[in-house]
Amino acid sequence: MASNDRPRTGGSPRPLRAGDTWWYAAIAGETAGSFTARVRIRARRGCLGAVLLLTVVYAGLVLTATGRRWGDAATTGRRADTAAAGLLRDHPSLAGLITLSLILGCVLLLAVGLIRGRYALTGLAAGGVVTALALTGLLRLYAPRPRAADTGVLLPSGFPSAQTVLALGVALGLALVVPHRLRTPAVGAATLWAAAVGAYTLADGRHRPGDVVAAAFLVLAVFCGLLALRARRGQVRPAPRRLPAPAPLLVFLPLALVAAGGLGTGIWLLGDTLALPATAPYDPAELRLAHRCGQALAAGVTAATGIALLTLLRHVDVSGPPPPYRLAGPFVEAAGAPEEAELVGPFTEDHDHEIS
Q: Of 233, 216, 222, 246, which is closest to residue 318 (Cα–Cα)?
């Protein structure tokens, strides 16, 4: 057990010191305040919180009439938003570009992990993306959906958005395969790209805002669960603490601005757009406002998801288990063991020292 895996102050009788026996190191490292235990608890809480938020979004925006009316208004409002409609009309190749970017994102995720030789982490990241996509399909098929009042047919549902799940899964999967010093710029830039993919699906009318928001919470829950399992197996270790570099800050700052601005703007506009009449016709200005509110909320939640995972992985290296505990002391020095050697037991080859 690693000496840097000891508990915080008060979690152990005393800190580990040179000469401590192997059983003391094992017992002290397995206490509730150890580093791996703290990472596991943080990741588990993040997973449960994301599942709770996903449930709230589903109940509020899919099962209630007010939520469905707001989602329909936000989708219809894309036609009243001349800026978004003009952009899609003038650039019809955006659909193919989004699809190509999703393919290249998956290739990049696999290539980075395989080139670095992190085969287990690459499989874990790819498994997280596949699991999120599988859960998306299950929710679309088996999650209860309301029926139309006149025909009784199930209403169509794109909950959650598969495109956003794939893009954000690639973004959060990079946190497992890139080096620790490059984690913030890589995940930050990829999360901004995932937010752009979600915004395109809203402007194109493929999904409602709730579908994109739910996709973000679903991906966060999956990767927090994977991190909790990896910490439970002891496959995490403390990362070196360094001063913030300029390059990560240049990427993290726009991500934080998108998260704060999107959530703030969306929540501010949400109160006005929820008060839509129960039946048509609607005011085009209200529809346009609902569409912009949905865009802001979707972008803010997607960016906040990337920030949440980076916060959970702060000072955490997921590339392997902690180094084994290394014994030292007068018996080791008397045995003439080299300084860099790793000893696996409490005894050395010096037969002059026996326990009577």
A: 233
